[in-house]
Amino acid sequence: MGSFRLGAMTLRSLFKKPETLLYPTQTKAPYAGQKGHVVNEVSGCILCGMCQRVCPCHCITVDKAARTWGIQPFMCIQCGSCVASCPTSCLSMDPAPTAIATEKHAIELAVPEQEKQVSSSI
What's the longest Cα–Cα distance across the chain? Predict the structure, then answer.
C-alpha cells in the first residue's frame, strides 16, 4: 500500500512545477516590508546624527566637521530604527541582496554642502 502512494507522489512531481529555485541564477522577488541594507540619499542628509544615536549596535558614524556619514554593514542588524528616526527621510532599507564581499569594509559617504535657501519677501 505504501509503495503505491510513493509511486503516485513521484509521478505527480514529474509533471508539476518544481518547488525550489536554482539560487544563483533565480531569486525570489522581495516581499512588501522586507528589510535589507541601509541606503543613504546623501543629498537630503543634514548630518543631524539621529541615526547614530538610535542605532543599537553603533555601526553608524556621523562627522559634522568632515561632513561624512558612514556605516559598517557587517555590524548592522537591519532593525530599521535609523530609518524610522531620520527626520529628512533620506535613509531607506533596500531589500536587494548585497554583493558578495571577501573582507569586511565600511561605507563612508561625503555629504555635499547644502545650499542655503534665501527667502525673498517682496
Answer: 92
Tens digit of each residue's pLDDT, the chain (122 residues): 567 788 888 888 888 887 788 877 887 888 877 888 999 999 999 999 999 999 999 999 999 999 999 999 989 999 999 999 999 999 999 988 777 788 888 999 999 887 765 555 55
Give the C-alpha separation, 80 to 98, whole Å. 16
Is 106 in contact with 63 (CB distance < 8 Å)?
A: no
Q: What DSSP string describes the chain?
A: -HHHHHHHHHHHHHSS--SS--TTT--PPPPTT---EEEE-GGG-----HHHHH-TT--EEEETTTTEEEE-TTT-----HHHHH-TT--EEEE-SPPPP-SS---EEEEPPPPPPPPPP--
What's the N-to-C CA distance of the chain in angstroms? Answer: 92
Cα separation, 45 vs 41, whole angstroms: 7
Q: Alpha-carbon Rg of the chain, whole angstroms?
A: 23
